Amino acid sequence: MAYIYKKVVEGKTYYYLRASVRKGTRIVAKDISYLGSTLDEVKASLDAIPKSTVRKAYKSIQRFLESNIYLEKAKKLKLKTTSFLDKTLLEEVEACKLHWQHAFKQRDKRTQQELIKRFAVDFTFNTTNIEGNTITLKQAKLLLSEDLTPKNKTLREIYDVQNTQRVFLQLLERVPALAQESIIQTHRELMRNVDPRIGYRTEDVHVIHARFASSPAPYVKTDMSLLIKWCEENACKLYPFVLAGIFHHKFEKIHPFFDGNGRAGRMLLNSILLKNGYPPIIIRKRNRAAYLETLGKADKAHLLQTKPEHYKPLIEFLAAELIQTYWDVFL
After folding, report:
1. Is the domain of 268 the same as that of 121?
2. Residues 136 and 225 occupy one common structural domain
3. CA distances (Å), 13 to each of 6, 38, 125, 291, in order?
4. Three-state secondary structure call for residue 36
5. For the segment 146-157, what is each residue's pLDDT rounded down to a tens digit?
6. Do 168 and 287 belong together in one domain?
7. DSSP for 209-274?
8. Residue 83, domain member (yes or no)
9. Can you name the residues that pair with 8 across neighbouring β-strands?
10. Residue 237 in domain
11. Same-domain status, 273 and 141
């Protein structure tokens, strides 16, 4: 497998095209070609290399180039540091934002639509499976793209998947203002034919495996009002990615609905990101345990508290998910 290898010697960067092959139990790496000391030189050198040499590694090489080109652009912005996010992760998140705005959105509409559809399926599969939906990724693709209903799955699971994709695509078309009515409407659309209990819950609930007490039913609407107000007041104080992550946790801790809080919360997380010019995020099912653990670490924070010691693990987890899922799909 061919890949780009970066080497730093006495502060100067050198790039090589390297190939690795397995020989018995060992992986042996060999440099094929020196590519240059800047990304522009790397691109020019790759253009001169026979396409057959890098065909199998084309995707990974393009990812390396695009992500590093936009990372260099992000570093030139001289971003204000935040105690909620390591500087390197901050720059990589900003690189995704720059690519989303200045590269992805400049592609032809058909390509954009195809990649958005792919992302929507991945997002739908992961966000519903985190909550226990058993429809596989392959089944979700067939259901959403070809309307082929999977066998031995409940109608609830099928509607769950269909609703999630529809709401996500609507969100990409128009991001609603963050308000009580729009939050309840988002939940209503997600729960269509899934759960008839629409609107804020009227009874107390115990969240399974949670280490926090959700808002008592009589205080749900008040707590949601306080959360929305908190979000408005901190919109100019907090880095937008941090704002979105903290809002997500506080929403989940209030747990305003009988069912669908996780799906609604991740949709609102993306709503805030899109509103601020960032690409959407997928929290992957395989990272569910880490996701719940970092949410749990923030549970010590009170509704209106915003302390890095509570939220840094969650924000950095979300940053890593955004970076990985963005370059996986939108390149």
Report:
1. yes
2. yes
3. 7, 7, 40, 35
4. strand
5. 999 999 999 999
6. yes
7. T-SSPPPPGGGHHHHHHHHHHHHHHHTTTS-HHHHHHHHHHHHHHH--SSS-HHHHHHHHHHHHHH
8. no
9. 13
10. yes
11. yes
Q: Report whether 186 contacts 166 (CB < 8 A).
A: no
What are 212's two structure tokens?
Answer: 């926090």
Which tokens go with 244? 């979105």
> Among all chains, which residue has been given the structure tokens 């819950």?
201
For 92-113, the DSSP string reads HHHHHHHHHHHTGGGS-HHHHH
Could you tell me the two tokens for 128? 């519903």
- Find the CATH number of the domain harbouring 310: 1.10.3290.10
- Who's near 84: CB < 8 A, 6+ residues apart? 238, 239, 242, 245, 308, 311, 312, 315
Question: Rounded to 5, what percent of the chain is helix, strand, coil?
Answer: 60, 10, 30
Tokens matching residue 97: 């934002």
Q: Name the token pair of 58.
A: 């084309």
pLDDT single digits (tens) 63-94: 999 999 999 999 999 899 999 999 999 999 99
pLDDT of residue 130: 97
φ, ψ of residue 266 to 5 degrees: the values are -75, -30
Bridge partners of 34?
16
CA distance 311 to 294: 8
16/147 same-domain check: no
Is there a domain that residue 234 lies in? yes
* Separation CA 198–CA 181 (nearest Å): 12
Residues 162 and 267 in one domain: yes
Q: Evaluate whether 323 touches 92 at the Cβ level (below 8 Å).
A: yes
Query: Does residue 195 sit in the same domain as residue 313?
Result: yes
Q: What is the CA radius of gyration of the chain?
A: 22
Structural domains of the chain, count: 2
pTM above 0.85, yes or no: yes
Extract the tokens encoding 281.
Answer: 């995020």
pLDDT digits (tens, 9 = 90+) for 255-286: 999 999 999 999 999 999 999 999 999 999 99
Window from 159-168, 198-207, 291-300 with minimum mean pLDDT: 198-207
Structural domain that includes position 1: 1-41
Note whether 113 and 17 are same-domain residues. no
